[in-house]
Amino acid sequence: xxxxxxxxxxxxxxxxxxxxxxxxxxxxxxxxxxxxxxxxxxxxxxxxxxxxxxxxxxxxxxxxxxxxxxxxxxxxxxxxxxxxxxxxxxxxxxxxxxxxxxxxxxxxxxxxxxxxxxxxxxxxxxxxxxxxxxxxxxxxxxxxxxxxxxxxxxxxxxxxxxxxxxxxxxxxxxxxxxxxxxxxxxxxxxxxxxxxxxxxxxxxxxxxxxxxxxxxxxxxxxxxxxxxxxx
Amino acid sequence: xxxxxxxxxxxxxxxxxxxxxxxxxxxxxxxxxxxxxxxxxxxxxxxxxxxxxxxxxxxxxxxxxxxxxxxxxxxxxxxxxxxxxxxxxxxxxxxxxxxxxxxxxxxxxxxxxxxxxxxxxxxxxxxxxxxxxxxxxxxxxxxxxxxxxxxxxxxxxxxxxxxxxxxxxxxxxxxxxxxxxxxxxxxxxxxxxxxxxxxxxxxxxxxxxxxxxxxxxxxxxxxxxxxxxxx
Amino acid sequence: xxxxxxxxxxxxxxxxxxxxxxxxxxxxxxxxxxxxxxxxxxxxxxxxxxxxxxxxxxxxxxxxxxxxxxxxxxxxxxxxxxxxxxxxxxxxxxxxxxxxxxxxxxxxxxxxxxxxxxxxxxxxxxxxxxxxxxxxxxxxxxxxxxxxxxxxxxxxxxxxxxxxxxxxxxxxxxxxxxxxxxxxxxxxxxxxxxxxxxxxxxxxxxxxxxxxxxxxxxxxxxxxxxxxxxx
Amino acid sequence: xxxxxxxxxxxxxxxxxxxxxxxxxxxxxxxxxxxxxxxxxxxxxxxxxxxxxxxxxxxxxxxxxxxxxxxxxxxxxxxxxxxxxxxxxxxxxxxxxxxxxxxxxxxxxxxxxxxxxxxxxxxxxxxxxxxxxxxxxxxxxxxxxxxxxxxxxxxxxxxxxxxxxxxxxxxxxxxxxxxxxxxxxxxxxxxxxxxxxxxxxxxxxxxxxxxxxxxxxxxxxxxxxxxxxxx
Lengths: 231, 231, 231, 231
Fold this sequence. Notes:
Four copies of one chain form a homotetramer. By secondary structure, chain A is α/β, with parallel strands linked by helices.
């Protein structure tokens, strides 16, 4: 199957397990409108597994994204996350190896392989430069560089870190897109991160905890767009 | 929230990761018709997480069942299975600690507690008598006794094993229902298992690999019903 | 093989991974002298796996204790902790399911069974009342009740918690000894904990971080002894 | 600290959890004699954690090797394998990510880093070409290429597989030594594997199940030596 093409810049609305059901669906629709408004960008929205189908049915322009996927094939695998089930529900991308769910290396290899077979984009997380380089050899679509020590600090990765990771990853495979998302809590964080050289960025609690999550989501997508245009 | 009441006998169609999407949906509808026909029974149908919503939307009489659930609360928990998301998608029961996904004891405790809060029925798996007794202290709704050595052998648990597990579990908590499902591959296996004293049973590959999965599903549900009536 | 008999009160010096090599060996010898001085008590000393043999060779009166043990039999199991190897190195007890290494329920069952076969005492950890009751059905020798929320707070379990856990566990199996060790940081904490009804207690950083770890170890053992005598 | 230098060819006697205590110690001494006889080679002997100290104390020429090591620092980490404890017990190498204990990528990174700090050699296992390349970016000392599908089949990796893995790994880091050990069950398997281009090889059940484990160990080490000399 043919995969979607990720455009630059991209923005990832990743509400983790903060949102589900109607509330998440409403924000996904907002993201979908923004995706329609900015066809030059790729907008990803993650959702709990059981929410993927409803979001996929109600949207057209976002890339519906799973939070995880197991590298299994149809068969046994009770309790694991079946790639074919995600695809059938409309997911076209998946996170892998997030800091809140670190995976065994053999699982990452298997999941990336299965994603390639099905045409599912992979967003693979690295919490150190060493991890980023190792993961780059697997040629995922996107590597998210998120130094564990910055998660939840409201402190963003600096220009030197971004430049170093870009270089380290592209030395291995220049086609991999690079996402930097540590500490993003405002539209101006988004702007700076794209300006400093990230291909994309994203946000969780900066949006879900905002006074108006909807407005913050719109502002952040606009900021990513403007920052990239300005380059 | 108030939980559903599990009726006796119950039957669990558990296609694991063998089925997903349209094919699974079609069989779930068959199960739903049978559930309507046998209101004295409880019919459970498990599905991959991403399939739960579609099945729940298309059925009325079955108990839509997740293959697993994490004991987390809305918040972080990227990649984990959020109970609220399952409930919002229509799931009203979940498996826990299946032999293909054994859980830490503290995870089982947390998941059972969260299920009770949300009104989600728990089907907790035990692969030995010792596990069954330990799990009984948590008062799940159903304990599935599946001696690991019989899984996939096509050999069912015998009368003495069924009697022993019934007694061991009921000594701890007499309200727990007991499911026996090792090696069920025909309607007559279902009949015998209920006849020998199980409150419910279920099947995976005996249905998904049958010449006509639909007919096998109907026959097994009928067999469970008849066996219980005959007692 | 015949297991050792655990005497009351017991004291557990559990330096976790804070100590190893010569420094740990020196304190283990101090504990051994105290164990000789207090033959009415059982004194346990835990050690990293690779330190067990040297400690066992250099002591006579303490119960040399592993931090964990896998429920495997001689054979494959590369990288896992073989019970026979621990026994051959002189270990006569093992912790299981510590909060820093929570185990799958089936692993706990397997490890407790293997320990019984070899005559190794089991100290199984519970971080909630529900876990304590479930674990009690496995009849380990000692259950350590350590509410996760108190670990590292320097706050000890109160009398009501101790009484409740004692009762809950003894209802299931009255032969299990009960250890309470949350927040123990001084000899007076030890005294109070035994006074309030624990069969034994223990300490990690309260000893390793003390000005004189050796003196603190002696004082705590004395306090446990005196508190039990006073009852 | 300064690490040992691995010589070519090397041989790894890896009895996993098949042996422990006296029986293992006796064979380790045999390996030590062979290591003294072949100073041009490196001979590794793995042991369960609790056996490392006794073997290290009784030998001089072999490289005493742990089956696993966690990437932790002295401190908490109850139940985990502390690098400093292994070093203090005389271990100078460790396996990581063996097929019987696959690790999270972040754990592999942490363990390799800690091993480098302490001067402990790392033998990192890869069960696919993709894993081998990813692991090569971490610059371990040795990569063991063991296609999961061959383990325990008595079938060795063929020349083309060996050549491909050598090339793939050396493209990333030419200093990594490459071990091939799938299906080694006789001295002639050892000879062929070294002849086909492996830097080293090793054996488990081919030795432990041999009529005379001692003689098989000697024969295999001799075969590795001869094969390398003949090149």
